[in-house]
């Protein structure tokens, strides 16, 4: 598969005929079962004996495009997924679009794709937070420069998202 000038090497499933069909509001994906198991959501369904197509709940805001990115990530070779250079190239096309990145984070969180969640969090910290001033972060996120937060609100954010502490200005 190719994402512009970026090429993905797909992992070879051990059991090529075992596929998981995922249905979104806008289409469907066939994912090798082994790759799908990297998401706890799919792993639980497969282990419980579900054999038919798996539909995402109708009330979710998860987009087909963000699911496509998740499928591209989980079906890539492990050597690629763990390579920082590959990760940077993979995330580069949509890192500058905060809304797309948050949608991608949402699908990874909903499907409990722990490996991908860790990589997304690292990419968010590196791109949006590391070495930045609070004002420059607000600008990157498209928020007014004069946005203020109470001490309680700040503490709640760091409680809810402890990985944000990694990006504090040095």
Question: What value does the average pLDDT take?
Answer: 79
Strand segment count: 5
Low-confidence stretches: 1-15
Class computed from helices, strands and strand pairing: mainly alpha
- Strand-residue proportion: 5-15%
In helices, the fraction of residues equals 40-55%
Strand order of the largest sheet: 4-3-5
Count of DSSP H/I helices: 9
Order of helices and strands: EEEEHHEHHHHHHH
Shape: elongated
Question: Between the first and last Cα atoms, what is the distance in angstroms?
Answer: 39 Å
Rounded radius of gyration (Å): 18 Å
Q: Can you summarize the main beta sheet?
A: 3 strands, mixed
Please tell me about this protein's structure.
It is a single chain. With 170 residues, this protein is mostly helical. It is built from nine helices and five strands. The chain has helices spanning 33-36, 40-47, 64-74, 78-81, 84-95, 98-110, 114-129, 134-140, 151-160; strands at 2-3, 6-7, 19-24, 27-32, 54-55. A three-stranded mixed sheet has the order 4-3-5. Strand 3 and strand 4 (27-32) form a beta hairpin. Helix 5 crosses helix 7 (114-129) and helix 6 runs antiparallel to helix 7. The N and C termini lie far apart (39 Å). Mean pLDDT is 79; it is low at 1-15.
Summarize the structure.
This protein has 170 residues and is mainly alpha-helical.
Kindly list the characteristics that best describe this protein.
two-stranded antiparallel sheet, three-stranded mixed sheet, 170 residues, mainly alpha
Topology:
Elements: E1 2-3, E2 6-7, E3 19-24, E4 27-32, H1 33-36, H2 40-47, E5 54-55, H3 64-74, H4 78-81, H5 84-95, H6 98-110, H7 114-129, H8 134-140, H9 151-160
Helix pairs in contact: 3-6, 5-7, 6-7
